[in-house]
Design goal:
Layout: E1 10-14, H1 18-30, E2 34-38, H2 41-50, E3 53-59, H3 67-77, E4 83-88, H4 92-100, E5 105-109, H5 113-126, H6 139-143, H7 149-161, E6 168-171, H8 178-187, E7 196-200, H9 206-214, E8 215-216, E9 228-229, H10 231-234, E10 239-243, H11 250-262, E11 264-265, E12 274-275, E13 279-284, H12 288-293, H13 299-305, E14 308-311, H14 322-336, H15 346-354, H16 360-374, H17 407-421, H18 426-433, H19 437-446
Parallel strand pairs: 1-2, 1-3, 3-4, 4-5, 6-13, 6-14, 7-10, 10-13
Antiparallel strand pairs: 8-9, 11-12
Helix pairs in contact: 2-3, 11-13, 14-16, 17-18, 18-19
């Protein structure tokens, strides 16, 4: 049987100069591409919605809606859509800013026809979806995250970005499942046959993180007795997951930015550079735009990391998912522990739905595993969950003293309660509060809190 030829890739060219459109059309058509033309951003978006556009080549500056507006609108509709900008020599800074905002590449006018075609081929090859959709179970089934509108929106976005190769920034509180989502993107993407390498930027000391990421050669420092491959190099052809990216030092931000721009690394103590081809997914529970505004995180690094942003909602904002999650976890834990299926009576389910879940899905999962093991007669009660030392009562955040309207006093009590719940481990307390470790260190010093392995009845609010 004669093989059906593959359809020509569709490329959209956008420019208010008719002559440029004609040149681009001629060049690309002669190379075997199907070309669509638009003289402005409005027409370009209409074509993107109506046709399977694989690549956009656009001018940066156009009357009305410019290239940056087109980029933002196109990526909101198609996060995986590559965009190459054309720019006059005098507007190169505009194109550089566009790349920071998510554009794939830029070329200066007048452009060389062969260079243009080479760049187009490279971009299309790097964005070629290599994972067949057939046989993959629905994301909802794999993630077991629930049916709320917020989660359905998340599933849809994961489905759209996974087959591409774009960098992804995952935002969400501690315990919402950021690493699980990152693994899911990798498993459904073009690099799933290659390594998924996790780097815990939050718990790795700054002095060791550089060696962990970039590796070192023998003799680079006192204890470097042999060459060591870094985690970035280990992720070649696979996916590099940078967890707690908001906690890296300014020096590491510079080194990481250099790698994201050049896709090359240099081991500590080495002279030669090593090319690395990997997808980068990062995650943080910090508000990175606020960190950028405060000067604690580089703006150019932020734009490199967040070509596409995924926000995972906290469990308290999607309480309608709790019954489904609870039933799923209980069934799984009963099977893994070899126990008969435990039941969740209505009063327990009501309690679960009213609890605030400061630790999100992770806290729910851990509580239900404890409940499955401890419950009597196969009936899981709220008292079996052992949550925060308050098994018989609905958990509420501690109130400040009744005679105090001070925000600082309320904040101090909140920090003390978080430290108590976290066993006086400051990192864990910071995660409960949804703040950085730097922030909790500052607050502890500010309020003169004595951090120790014992509870002080003088410091702690009444239970």
């Amino acid at each position: 049987m004669e093989k059906t030829p593959s359809p020509k890739p569709t490329i959209l060219v956008v420019d208010d100069d008719v002559h440029i459109l004609e040149v681009l059309d001629a060049r690309l058509s002669s190379a075997g591409f199907h070309v669509l033309r638009a003289a402005d951003a409005h027409r370009a978006m209409d074509l993107i919605r109506a046709h399977p556009v694989r690549l956009v080549i656009s001018d940066v500056r156009m009357p009305g809606k410019g290239g940056m507006d087109l980029l933002a609108e196109a990526l909101s509709l198609r996060p995986d859509l590559p965009v190459i900008f054309l720019t006059a020599y005098g507007t190169i800074p505009d194109a550089v800013q566009a790349v920071k905002a998510g554009a794939t590449e830029y070329l200066t006018k007048p452009f060389d026809g062969r260079e243009l075609l080479q760049k187009v081929q490279e971009v299309l090859k790097s964005r070629q979806p290599k994972v067949a959709e057939e046989g993959l179970p629905p994301i909802q089934q794999v993630l077991s995250g629930g049916n709320s509108p917020a989660m359905k929106e998340l599933y849809d976005l994961i489905d759209r970005i996974a087959p591409s190769d774009v960098n992804v920034l995952i935002l969400g509180e501690s315990g919402v499942g950021k690493e699980r989502v990152a693994r899911l993107i990798h498993q459904r993407g073009p690099r799933r046959e290659h390594p998924f390498v996790v780097v815990d930027c939050g718990s790795t000391p700054t002095g060791l993180l550089e060696s962990e990421l970039f590796g070192h050669v023998r003799g680079a420092f006192t204890h470097a007795i042999r060459d060591k491959k870094g985690l970035i190099e280990a992720s070649d052809r696979g996916t590099l997951f940078l967890d707690e990216i908001g906690n890296i030092s300014p020096e590491m931000q510079v080194r990481l930015l250099r790698f994201l721009e050049d896709r090359k690394i240099r081991k500590i103590g080495d002279l030669k550079e090593i090319p690395v081809n990997c997808r980068v997914i990062s995650a943080t529970n910090l508000d990175l735009p606020e960190e950028v505004e405060n000067g604690d995180f580089r703006e150019d690094l932020y734009y490199r990391l967040r070509v596409v942003t995924l926000r995972i909602p906290p469990l308290r904002d999607r309480r309608e998912d709790i019954p489904l999650l609870a039933a799923h976890f209980v069934k799984g834990f009963c099977e893994s522990h070899g126990l008969p299926l435990a039941t969740l009576p209505p009063e327990t389910m009501k309690w679960l739905c009213e609890y605030p879940w400061p630790g999100n899905v992770r806290e729910l999962k851990n509580a239900l595993e404890a409940g499955v093991v401890l419950c009597k007669n196969g009936v899981l009660r709220a008292s079996d969950l052992h949550l925060s030392g308050l098994p018989h009562a609905r958990h509420k955040p501690p109130a400040a003293p009744a005679d105090s309207l001070s925000l600082e006093e309320s904040e101090r009590h909140a920090i003390l309660r978080a430290l108590q719940q976290a066993g006086w481990v400051q990192k864990d307390a910071a995660q409960l509060l949804g703040i950085s470790r730097r922030a909790i260190h500052y607050k502890i010093k500010k309020y003169g809190i004595e951090v120790a392995g014992k509870k002080s009845s003088e410091d702690l609010p009444g239970d």
